[in-house]
Amino acid sequence: MTLANLRNQNKMTQENLAKIVGISRVYLSNLEKRKYNPTVDIVIKLAKALNVTEQVIIDCFK
Question: What global pTM score does this model have?
Fold first, then answer.
């Protein structure tokens, strides 16, 4: 499972998810491309926004 897949399953755009999490759309795009690893704070916010556990988000980056 990828971060983009999770976002799409929740019918969210990058812009929507980025706004909810409090990051830029460009940063979210780079996370989805795995150019960066998220901080613990971002993992928690992504998990909450996507209605999954933090472990699911972490697994996207393995």
Answer: 0.95
| Long-range interactions of 31-36: CB distance < 8 A, separation 24+ | 31/3, 32/2, 32/3, 32/4, 32/7, 34/61
Domain boundaries, the chain: 3-59
End-to-end CA distance of the chain: 10
- The tokens describing 46, both together, are 């992504």
For 3-59, CATH gives 1.10.260.40
Distance (Å, rounded) from C-alpha 24 to C-alpha 40?
17
Q: What is the pLDDT of residues 24-50, one digit of tens each?
A: 999 999 999 999 999 999 999 999 999
